[in-house]
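ESCALATION

Customer reports they have been waiting on this structure for their group meeting. Please prioritize. Original submission:
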Amino acid sequence: MISKCMISKRTAITRIGYIAASALAMAISSAIAAQNQWETSLARGTEMRSDQLAHAQQRFATASSIADRFAAEFASAPDSAPDPRRVQLVNDLMRGDDRGFAEASAATSLPEALSIAGASALRRANTTITATGQLNSAGVSTAKALGDTSDDLVYTPIPPCRVVDTRVVGVTIPSHSSQDYNSNTGTGQGGGVCVTYTGVIPAAMTLNVTVDQTGLGDTSHYGFLSVYPQGDPRSRPSWMNYTGGQTVANEGISMLNQTNGMFTIFVQNESNVVVDVYGYFRAPSGSTTGATGATGATGATGPTGATGPTGPTGASGSTILSGLGAPSPANGANGDYYIDDLAGVLYGPKTGGVWSGQLSLIGPTGAQGVTGATGAPGVAGSTGSVGPTGPTGALGATGSTILSGNGAPSNGTGSSGDYYIDNTTGILYGPKLGGTWTGATQLALKGATGATGATGASGVTGSTGSAGMIFTSSTSAATLTTLLGGLAGVSAAMPVSGPNIASVPSLGALGATVDLSTLLNVAQTFPVNGSFNTIKGTFANTVALTLVGTTVTVNATLYKAPAGSLIATATPLSCSATYTGVVSVLAVTQCTPSGGTASVNAGDTGVIVLSATAAGVSLINTIVVGGSVGISP
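Update from on-call: job pushed to the front of the queue and completed.
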């Protein structure tokens, strides 16, 4: 299928992977003049013709291409502003003569190119412009009326003026959206306090547009940006392409809405945008008007003149065609151009019925991009039908085997190509070659013994565990008395641990301490440090009692003496059993703990002391009991 297409006027295209803009602009300038009806309509309203705009775009593309040759020498400003030397070079070339373009194209350094461009601008400024002479598109002075609109657009360079910076405003342009901007000031648009022109609205401006995708999207998101006059009903050709996270700049010429001086920016993906202006174009103008004379009398209306002859039909303009594959001789007419959509090649112009001049529109493949983040797993697809069983493959070659044993391998072990591990020495032999292990590579699998590591820090000392001592003792009948006032009278002693004592030692009236010198056969020494939290006892009286209105309490208490002493004192570890009313012989009573505890040190001596107290009507009593007592942690 053959179709017409519009080529966007982009500059510095080499920065985004396309051919040099100057070559492309030269190839399609005539096509733009013939096909861009919207621009032609706009030109009629501003005394600017589309061929004037095409020539201005061609000159700007060439100037930008010359500047791109020295891109490595330009600095990138933190705020995305263009390098002032680049602006100076492009502006001097644009207001200079054709000789400046030719000489700057051959310059080998940036200083040389700047010097040539400056001289070119000076020569053009010194060219005499009179009412009968004007420098035309070919750089030749010809006789024309002052302000003749068939001449080139007049380019006026200005100090760079930032008119848009959405980063300052804090509002990005959303995806698939456009935003209108004033070309004459940056006030309210995030730009600077500057004015780009005065008087009549320019036909077009030189813009440096930067798209800042920092923090927006990822490298798998591709998008483009378009710049066009506000209200332009056309499709939006790309000013530049970009991916998520990139910051890309591109300069070029954009026409303006001739009613309000506005231009529009469209973005495919959400973006921050910065726009700097450093020149503008107007149609040529001039005046030889002298002093205004007196108004003459109105003349009589003359007769209507005869209709003039129809003028000759103008020559057909060039057309840009496209299709899948190379053009055939039957496609197009002489002067046309053709784009092969498959190969990305531009043919033309067609001359003498033959297509010639092939120019690749596709740049070299870019460097491999950063691998994107792994996407979320997709929904599992349905299981496909089982395919037919494939033919049996050829028998593969026998693979190597890894053998092992204690000691070096003998030649009878394994086959050629095998490996062998000596488990004793940790050496890997192999591969076996020519049926022998002799000459096979030996690789030690065990590394040298490493240096002894530093001694680790001592751990925290744990808390002292309980001694774990458990003692149980028993006694035969022990006689206990209570004195006047119900106080303890005669008491008895029993060992902390041991068997039944047939003859229970009597202590007489119980005092605050117990002298162990008379109880050496009963007192016992604790072997380790420890604590006792529990005391239990079981008693049985051996003589019947009748206690009317009286309660007798039998107590069992641990007494201890420190190491080296025979004087023992009572500890809080004790239990008690009560008797009241008629108590039959061998009535069993449990000794209930008081809740106290006792701590001992290794070498302390202890005994269990049995005593009785009374309360009630009869306070003087005698009770004979036997039983056992146990203490534990």
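Sent to customer with the following note: The chain has four domains: 13-282, 323-362, 402-440, 471-632.
Escalation resolved.
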